[in-house]
Specification:
The structure holds two protein chains of two kinds.
Chain A lengths: L1 H49 L5 H5 L12 H32 L4 H14 L3 H15 L6 H25 L3 H9 L4 H30 L2 H5 L33 H9 L4 H35 L3
Chain B lengths: L19 H42 L2 H6 L15 H32 L2 H15 L3 H19 L8 H25 L3 H9 L4 H12 L1 H17 L2 H6 L17 H10 L7 H31 L4
Helix pairs in contact in B: 1-12, 3-6, 3-9, 4-6, 5-6, 6-9, 7-8, 9-12, 11-12
Classes of the chains: A mainly alpha, B mainly alpha.
Membrane topology (chain A): Multi-pass membrane protein
InterPro entries (chain A): MetI-like, MetI-like_sf, Phosphate_PstA
GO biological process, one term (chain A): phosphate ion transmembrane transport
């Protein structure tokens, strides 16, 4: 009699635990669904509001006081040029720093300081970089509200991302590769340049793409350096038809970028401008999704392909 | 006995001797790489130097006591008050709303993905969450102002067009991917044999997650939470778009109020002359923000040390 009671008690306890288990499972699925639904709402809302505005003219027109003829020409050209500066500044610096920390750095106090510092920089709010750029680039170096100043600001912002990605990519290369190179008499730099870097190139590229995708959407630091929001002209083209074919005048020109243009349209009261904002947002989201998607694809592809 | 002829020892050919030119090149490259790495330290010093030097000028005009205790922030008015409290309260309220969403949801998603989800679901959900985290903040701001606020207004008819509540909610959703992916990484790094031990004595998956895996990965989870907090505190565009720009000493999320970051944006949108007190206020505000995030980062570091479990 007592025995059956005991067994029944145990069964109740098991049933109760299983109920909790089921509850946790359902809660997890619901939480994930909410994240998915939010994304659908965000994207769907923008598609409904912005899709009718996404015509060819939207990409080839300057912003305007009249919402129905306003476009994002100066914004996407500005974004492209700013990203060019960002990449040119952040990639060599970030990769070099990553290579140093992973391949050269002795285990000492200075190295530790640099490592802690990179981690901390990644946690600094982006608007603080904007203040740094305002004081340093805009006023002390006298770059003004130029493409160069904006590109360098975003380069500082994504530097930690590039450094961390480079380190991770390099760390995944087995030490035997390096030993093989040393055994053949290669110097340290020859080993790095001819073996370590080429083999980790795809991983580094993934990090660079993620960094640039982050930079494309950054608004706050660009606002902080005081970038104008109404730009109805293009900077002079970097490529000229006369000798020396390349021109760097555009570096010092005022500009606008996609997120600034979108912010500008959001803050206007007329509904028609908000449809423009939705259309610009849609372009912006598609750009970042494409870049992040490419990075994720690269990473998964790599993980499958490489077997050391 | 056959003698093996020993080759005469001679100096190695010139091409194999220590090549000074090559050696020098190696050293120069190492130096350049070191300079690149130290550049990040330079950035930190530049940030600290700039914020402190501009703030020092600001504190010549305004006493630190007023800055910390005055309940009004009206630096651009004729009757100027420089109390940081209204901006701090806006930041605190919007961050608390955001964390009330991001921490529970992020944790539940992490538990699900790490302990419950089949492989296929995890392989799809992880990149999806990563994509969600990559969406520009200005887009989330648009979503907060033109979708979430009208939706909330149907529930709370008194909600104004700008509110800390809708900005905080969207910020929370925005931070979920960061919290969930870091928490999940921490939970998955707990060795499998701990889980197997738990299952072996009859624990369910939920019991294992709550009583074995989470305590064992507490340091990583704490780090994820701290990262979420410092992101919420430093977030700019969502609050600037959806929470209004009026400094307001409130603790009610249903009101509009400016945060520290919003104020910096507001000043930058107008054109204040370089060197004016108004110009320096944004550096004082920035310094406050940096100190706040620094406190959380140090706290995170300490928590991680305190709860670190090594296997």
């Amino acid at each position: 009699m007592n025995n059956t009671n005991n067994i029944n008690e145990i069964r109740t306890i098991i049933a109760r635990h299983k109920r909790w288990d089921l509850l946790a499972l359902v809660a997890g699925i619901i939480a994930l669904m909410i994240a998915v639904l939010t994304f659908i709402a965000l994207f769907g809302n923008m598609v409904i509001d912005g899709m009718p505005r996404l015509t060819w003219e939207f990409f080839t027109s300057f912003p305007s006081r009249k919402p129905e003829i306003a476009g994002i020409l100066s914004a996407w050209v500005g974004t492209t040029l700013v990203m060019l500066v960002t990449a040119v500044a952040a990639v060599p610096l970030g990769v070099a720093a990553g290579v140093y920390l992973e391949e050269y750095a002795p285990k000492n106090f200075i190295t530790e300081i640099i490592e802690i510092n990179v981690t901390n920089l990644a946690g600094v709010p982006s608007i603080i970089y904007g203040l740094l750029a305002l004081g340093l680039f805009v006023y002390q170096l006298g770059l003004g509200q130029s493409i160069l100043a904006a590109g360098l600001t975003l380069a500082l912002l994504i530097l930690p991302i590039v450094i961390v990605a480079t380190r991770e990519a390099i760390r995944s290369i087995p030490v035997t590769i390096r030993e093989g190179a040393y055994a053949l008499g290669a110097t340290k730099w020859q080993t790095v340049a001819d073996h370590v870097l080429p083999y980790s190139a795809a991983g580094i590229l993934t990090g660079i793409i993620i960094g640039l995708a982050r930079a494309i959407g950054e608004t706050a630091p660009i606002i902080t350096i005081g970038a104008l929001t109404f730009i109805a002209f293009l900077p002079p083209s970097p490529v000229q038809d006369q000798f020396p074919f390349l021109s760097f005048e555009w570096l010092m020109e005022p500009f606008t970028v996609m997120p600034i243009q979108m912010f500008n349209w959001i803050s206007r009261p007329q509904e028609a401008f908000q449809h423009n904002a939705a259309a610009a947002g849609l372009v912006l989201v598609l750009m970042t999704l494409l870049m992040n998607g490419l990075a994720i694809y690269l990473r998964y592809h790599l993980r499958k392909k490489i077997k050391w | 006995m056959v003698r093996v002829p020993v080759p005469a020892i001679s100096h190695p050919p010139k091409s194999l001797r220590r090549n000074h030119k090559r050696h020098l090149k190696e050293r120069i490259i190492e130096l350049l790489l070191f300079l690149a790495a130290s550049f990040s330290v330079f950035i930190t010093f530049a940030i600290i130097y700039l914020l402190i030097s501009e703030s020092l000028v600001f504190f010549e005009h305004v006493s630190l006591w007023d800055f910390l205790t005055d309940t009004q922030w009206t630096p651009l008015f004729d009757d100027a008050h420089y109390g940081i409290l209204p901006l701090v309260s806006g930041t605190a309220v919007s961050s608390l709303v955001a964390l009330a969403i991001a921490l529970p949801f992020g944790t539940i998603i992490a538990i699900y993905l790490s302990e419950f989800a089949p492989f296929a679901v995890r392989e799809i959900a992880k990149p999806f969450l990563e994509l969600l985290g990559g969406i520009p903040t200005v887009v989330y701001g648009y979503f907060a102002l033109l979708f979430v606020t009208p939706m909330l207004q149907t529930i709370f008819p008194n909600l104004p067009g700008f509110s800390l509540l809708s900005a905080g909610l969207v910020m929370g959703i925005m931070i979920i991917p960061y919290v969930s992916s870091m928490t999940e990484d921490a939970m998955r790094s707990v060795p499998m044999h701990l889980r197997e031990g738990s299952y072996a004595i009859g624990a369910t998956r939920f019991q294992t997650a709550a009583k074995v895996v989470m305590p064992a990965s507490l340091s990583g989870i704490a780090a994820a939470y701290i990262l979420g907090i410092s992101r919420a505190v430093g977030e700019t565009m969502v609050v600037a778009i959806a929470a209004g720009m009026q400094p307001n000493l409130v603790w009610n999320p249903m009101e509009p109020a400016a945060t520290i970051t919003t104020y910096i944006v507001q000043v930058s949108l107008g054109d204040l002359p370089h060197g004016s007190v108004g110009y320096q206020t944004i550096f004082a505000a920035g310094l406050t923000l940096l100190l706040l995030t620094l406190i959380f980062n140090i706290l995170g570091h300490l928590l991680r040390k305190r709860f670190r479990e090594v296997y």
